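Exercise: predict the structure of this protein bound to zinc ion.
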Amino acid sequence: MSSEKVYEIAILGRAVWQLHSLNNEGTVGNVTEPRNVRIVDPNTKKAVTTDGVSGEMLKHIHTEIMWTLAEKKNLCDACKILNPEKFNFVIKKKKIKVNDVESALQEALKLCDICDVHGFLIEKPTVSRKSTVEFGWALGIPEVYRDIHTHARHAPGEKGKTKSENQKDGDEEDKGGVSTQMVYHRPTRSGVYAVISVFQPWRIGLNEARPDKYTYDVGDEIRKRRYELALKTYQLMFTRPEGAMTTTRLPHVEDFSGVIVYSTKPLPVPVISPLKDGYISDIKEITNNMCNDTDGKCLKIIEFSNIVEFVSSINNLIGSEPYKMELGE
Ligand SMILES: [Zn+2]
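Solution:
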């Protein structure tokens, strides 16, 4: 397996998270609303409202863990401190001068593990580097249990005075009185979530801005390092998801089961939603019927029945190499 070249990887699975609040709609007054999404339940074909954790949130979790694992000398000045502007910030601050789109992309790819893997936008010159890591919404497989909990926070203030009275006084500071209570409502959810993600190792370090060729701006060693880093990050994000409200609603991570599909030749991997019962057998059928070359199969699967097997399955892939496709003179 160590000599295998990996073109694309899809991670399709069902994650069990209990009493979490990883993603919310926002707060109105003192009530925080959970994320609601409308979907068609593939098993009953009925429209249902369920719980979701957005792809943006999952990508954010992946970025933060990648930052934790990365050697900081391998990051640009923006990503060193998780500035969401990424390489755009470096250009804006004129820390690096670039003349055109090709060289802007080249500098970013050479300099930064996170910019390369997670993509970025630059305003001047206008450059869009598409992420090599993609996430769909994590969707609660109906039925997710949802609750709104009421909490009281003790805030310093004058005895008998409400918060609005304090505000009228133009003073929210401690007045040395007996503490007042502020009631607020926070949601939690427990359920099984369908997760889909695609990782494109073949694009690591690839400068797609050149009009006449596809070439890599970093060597094989750096491409391999970024490939390993992205995969190790996947291991951690399912063993330790960090999203919203983890200060008091750190998710009880229970399990993650599913399938990893990967291609060893240029072939987009199939993505079948784990919302659907029987998605694993669908994936198996598809891989059996596709890409049966004379020199073997180029679409492979690793099934994992729990979180421990998921981590070791990713370890198997870490031993492989990112696929390389150089075209043009
Ligand atoms: Zn960066």
